[in-house]
Amino acid sequence: MVIIAQIQFFPDQASKMAGQVDTLLLWLIVLTGTVTLAIAAVMIFFLAKYRKRAAADRTPPKTENLAVEVTWSVIPFFMFLGLFGWGAKIYFDESVDPKNAMEVHVIGKQWMWKLEHLQGKREINQLHVPLGETVKLVMTSQDVIHSFFMPAFRIKEDVLPGRYTTQWFKATKPGTYPIFCAQYCGTNHALMIGQVIVMAPSDFAAWLKTGRETVSVAQRGEQLFHSFGCSGCHAAQAAVRAPLLEGIYGSQVPLADGRIVNADERYLRDCILIPNTQIVAGFDPVMPSFQGRISEDDVFAITTYIKSIGSSPPEASIPNR
Amino acid sequence: MSKNRAILYEHFSDIEQQRETSTAGIWVFIGSEIMFFGALILAFSVYRFSYAREFAEGAAELNLLLGGINTAILFTSGLTMSLAATANRMGWKGSTLILLLTTALLGVVFLGIKVFEYHEDWTKRLFPGPGFNWTDSDSPQVQLFFVLYFIMTGIHALHLIVGVGVVVVIAWLALRDRIHAGHFMPLDVAGLYWHFVDLVWVFLFALLYLMGGTR
Amino acid sequence: MALPVQNYVVIDQGEPPSYLKEYTLRSWLLTTDHKRIGLLYLFTIIVFFAIAAAAAAIMRLNLLTPRGDLVQAETYNKLFTTHGVLMVWFFLIPSTPSVLGNFLLPLMLGARDLAFPKLNLLSWYIFILGGAIVLYALLIGGVDTGWTFYTPYSSTYSNSHVALMAAGVFINGFSSILTGLNFIVTTHKLRAPGMTWFRLRLFVWSMYATSLILVLATPVLAMTLTLMALERIWHVGVFDPALGGDPLLFQHLFWFYSHPAVYIMILPGMGVVSELICGFSKKRVFGYTFVAFASMAIALLGFLVWGHHMFVSSQSVFAGMVFSFLSFAVAVPSAIKVFNWTATLYRGSISLDTPMLYAIGFIGLFTAGGMTGLFLATLGIDVHVHDTYFVIAHFHYIMVGGMVMAFMGGLHFWWPKISGRMYPEFLGKMTAIVTFIGFNLTFFPQFILGYLGMPRRYHAYPEQFQVYNVLSTAGASILGLGYLLPLCYFIWSCRYGKRAGNNPWGAKGFEWETASPPPVHNFERPPVQTEEVYNYPPPSHEAML
Q1: Do C317 and A92 touch (CB under 8 A)?
Q2: What is the pTM of this model?
Q3: What are the residues whose beta carbons fall under 8 Å from the beta carbon of A207, sequence distance 6 or more?
Q4: Is C436 a domain residue?
Q5: Of A290 and A82, which is predicted with more confidence?
Q6: How large a percentage of chain C has pLDDT more than 90?
Q7: Nearest CA to C264 among C96, C72, C106, C15?
Q8: What are the helix (H) ranges across A50-187?
Q9: Which residues constitute the domain of residue C234?
């Protein structure tokens, strides 16, 4: 936090990515500031020199000059290309699914954030993370569109009902940083605020052990897999023929309508909630929908369980949004 | 009021300018309508692509025969409208009136058939809302087909009602000799609007009726 | 001897009466005179502006303290919705086109009226109807979705009068479409003899480009609002994922209109600025062809960039890249215009009257706002500042620092033509300066707030943001003065202002060759274009003394 006399001028920079964004910002300010000042200077100069009563050379100049026009179109355009490329690189890096990241599930709802670590520990409006470790947030909403915004890492991503979105970060500075909801979501949108708490890895491990004894999310998911009756069909000796789920996460699944999709978190979720829109090739459309019968938390748990029972090697890791 | 005498409005310098302006005006208006229906057709296409099977199932419930008859009716009305414009330019008042009224009548028949179809859908519990009844678990997507079907055909029907009204007014003006061989632009402009509504139906018919399977 | 009256106005003796002469209510409410209709729009948009500005004032007062408890959260949310809806659709979009465009387009083209005068009056009545419905929705409780109506909040969750307000905006859209239609056809068909396309005034070019957007983009908004409202009333799922719909489809459809809409708002202002720069430098603009084509390029490219509002919406990465690139591309024609305006000043003979001050203010503030647009087009930066006060600052620099200043400049420039009177010049200059200072104080701190992370649409905020909010509110009070003063002195000038001659500024253009205020049919004799546009004579020795 850059604070001078109690006034904050600049947000905390708590990740390398944040540093990259700030560098880009600085160059943008320098570049655009220089151009703006240059235009202002030329304008003020002309306004003074050629004001009505001033004596000056007013021989009418050429008012069409193709060379000049092309020059001051092409040069800015190439500058823009550079800026575009730089910004796009950062954006692309931010979108790539990180390998071996610590996953945290986030559910936004009016007007709070519910978070769950895979070990089973849950938080409300707070996110404890270890320093120096990549964290991947898998997020959804229970009602309207929200947006999970952490200014200190210079990232945000909308969370939508009906789908999963992800973002990742790697904290490089311990401390407490704000979480804001950045998509207007109703009356208490401004109160949907939280904190990210970055701790030393040993402190984080200790924190994980505090509180009530919890079952890991995958274990909870396995329990739900049985209690919701999934294992009634999705098992080797089941009476009804259904795809077996070991190793399915991350694989390419051929669907009955000819498409081949990547079995990511969203695919698994859609299978549970709107199964008839993506019947696997060679199977009958008999799976019932669990829409309305299963909460987002439980969907997360079941998909985590399915991910845990073997995944195919990670693909080129851009999620199919 | 003598027929065949052009009526020049005072802000125009000559009759040619006035006529060209009318034509330009209706084409620009049609441009805006293309964007209006285009947005709707785009929304439909996006969902049709995502939920191909469910939309085909929904489309199979539509009455292809009635839809086809309606298409033929509108094509015919397009013919009578064009003929009315020609008859008017030739100064044949009687023919003009008959052709205009036939056009309007065909439009009304179209609307009547549509009402019949809507009623059929209502009794088959295909009207979206709490009364919607579909056996499968993918009913939200099938219901979405019907939501878009009713909105698309409904907005088209609204445009057709306006069109029928316009044609009737034009016929009345022709009867009173306010539209004639010298002052024909209002009829021509109405004709362009009518043909546009006709064309929109062709697109809707293809998208909604023809893309489903048959039962 | 009585002359046979046919299809032209017979001028028997003396000057034809000015368009303002008749004063009955009927002559105003049933007028088809484009000049009167322009004034009808002026009176109406002032009312909407006042309400929207009052909403902003309450918002800024509420934001003086972090707890933001001047008004309740729900009230605050309704206030920012009111502010957005009224400012966008009932002030900014109609302002220059429907006021100045209506008044000036036929005059600049040498025509007697627009192509469809009765349709023009209908446009105004439709505008009134849409506005009445929106005001009614506000009176019975308002709407709290934001002017962007994002689903599923607007279609399923909000408990406010969404469908009613959507209906008001929908109806208002037809006013836009019909005005645009009128302008396009007028420009094509009613030009004076000798007026080729490349002898058109730059204001006309910008109105033409704006009208293309009005006609082609507004219908998409109409359809989007219809679908959203039907979803709400009918409880079906067009955009609601719980019922099979896609909330992102709403965003795509909405922004497909709303991004071009911002060009509807700025292009007319750019046209005004071109006229002011030429008029007050007594010079032809530098690079006329490029400036004219830049307007068209902005209109075209403006249709291709809507996804830059959705970089973090879960739109695909590929789409993000394409939209970012195109958003940089659309900045190029705007840059061309700024360079050309600056170059026009070279070897001009510049008078710093009030309209020129506004034009210069526009160039500075629009450039600053446009530069911050580059920040937003930059993907890596946008992920951080999207939906924060940075965005609010950016678009207010363009809309208020740009568009409203251009509108004020145009109003001052053409006031003598509209009313036949001069406004008080000293007050005019002071107001321009006060506006500039107040504006910057209001909105510059918001850039900092945005990068610090303060999100939009927050009625309350963490303490560390307070100092910037206080500065912003202080600036707003000064800015308000900048709008109150002209209201007062324009009204004053109608009675006490110095009478203006045909051409008080010595500017070139058909509107300056007829009386101030013009006669009902604009010109005694239809003008003919015999020279290039902006054909200012080279300054003589005497002119420099």
Answers
A1: yes
A2: 0.93
A3: A128, A199
A4: yes
A5: A82
A6: 91
A7: C96
A8: 66-95
A9: 32-532
Rounded to a whole number of angstroms, the CA Rg of chain B reads 20
pLDDT-derived band of residue C461, with 50, 70 and 90 as boundaries?
A: very high
- Residue C16 located in a structural domain: no
Task: Give the separation between CA B101 and CA B113, rounded to whole angstroms.
Answer: 18
Q: Which residues of B touch C315 (CB under 8 A)?
A: none
Q: Residues in chain B whose beta carbon is closer than 8 A to a beta carbon of chain A?
A: 50-54, 136-138, 140-141
In the predicted model, is pLDDT for residue C79 greater than 90?
yes
How many structural domains is chain C composed of? 1
Q: Searching chain B, which residue's CA lies closest to the CA of residue A274?
A: B138
Q: CA dihedral in degrees (B122, B125, B131, B133; nearest 10)? A: -160
Q: Cβ–Cβ of C457/A190 closer than 8 Å? A: yes
Q: Nearest residue on chain B to A289, judged by CA atoms?
A: B137
Kindly state the helix (H) or strand (E) to which residue A157 belongs, with its residue range: strand A155-159
Domain coordinates of chain B in residue numbers?
15-209
Instruction: Report the CATH superfamily, name and number, of domain B15-209.
Output: Cytochrome c oxidase, subunit III, four-helix bundle (1.20.120.80)
Give chain A's domains with CATH numbers: 102-208 (2.60.40.420), 217-308 (1.10.760.10)
* Domain membership flag for residue C508: yes
Q: A162 in contact with B at a CB cutoff of 8 Å? A: no
State which residue of chain A sits closest to C68, comparing Cα positions: A190
> What is the DSSP secondary-structure string of A18-73?
HHHHHHHHHHHHHHHHHHHHHHHHHHHHHHHHTBTTS----PPPPS--HHHHHHHH
Contact B54 A276 (CB under 8 A): yes
Q: Is residue C538 part of a domain?
A: no
Q: What is the pLDDT of residues B28-60, one digit of tens each?
A: 999 999 999 999 999 999 999 888 888 998 999
Q: Give per-residue pLDDT as tens, A25-74.
A: 999 999 999 999 999 999 999 999 999 988 888 888 988 999 999 999 99
At residue C426 the predicted structure's pLDDT band, cuts being 50, 70 and 90, is very high
Quickly tell me which residue has 């208006």 as its tokens.
Answer: B29
Sign of CA dihedral C46, C49, C55, C56: negative
